[in-house]
Design brief:
This protein has one domain (about 20-150). About 65% of the residues lie in helices and about 0% in strands. It is built from eight helices and no strands. Helix 2 (about 15-40) crosses helix 4. The longest helix has 23 residues, at about 15-40. It is elongated and about 55 Å long. The termini are far apart.
Length: about 150
């Protein structure tokens, strides 16, 4: 009994330095993305905001006069970073979900990095095939939504 108690007390419930550093890098990446989104002004057309950081206009949209699968994501992030979740949702529903997820990822990563909590390991278990299929379905539905609400190259 004493040996079982000694071995269970030797298990460290905290993450190691490399895992905490990875959580910190995830948090840093998330805050950089959100900071950049906050710096940009959302385009009223619901797409094209990415051009403010020097990226070219979407070739898909120019060629087909239809939205690409990620159409409106940057604009949705810019609205969300400004705290305007309704306009973010209206612009690109999946973009709004990803922006909120990025904000959650920032705080979660920061918490894990600072405390060494194993909560990050548990959260990683959420990325199962079923969850990924649901996310893919939501992305597809958001793309269909963009087709329905598409206003051209405005």
């Amino acid at each position: 009994m004493a040996s079982a108690r000694a071995s269970s007390s030797s298990i460290d419930p905290r993450l190691g330095v490399s895992q905490r550093a990875l959580a910190g890098l995830i948090s840093l990446g998330a805050i950089v993305v959100l900071g950049l989104a906050a710096w940009m002004s959302p385009e009223g057309a619901g797409h094209g905001t990415h051009e403010q950081i020097g990226l070219p206009a979407c070739a898909w949209a120019q060629y087909f006069d239809a939205p690409c699968m990620t159409c409106g994501m940057t604009t949705a992030f810019a609205y969300a970073a400004d705290g305007d979740l309704l306009d973010s949702l209206i612009t690109q529903p999946m973009g709004m979900l990803l922006a909120v997820g990025t904000a959650v990822g920032f705080w979660f990563g920061l918490y894990v990095a600072l405390t060494g909590s194993r909560a990050g390991v548990m959260a990683g278990h959420l990325l199962r095939p079923r969850s990924l299929w649901i996310m893919a379905g939501l992305a597809g539905a958001a793309w269909i939504y963009k087709f329905v609400t598409w206003n051209g190259q405005g």
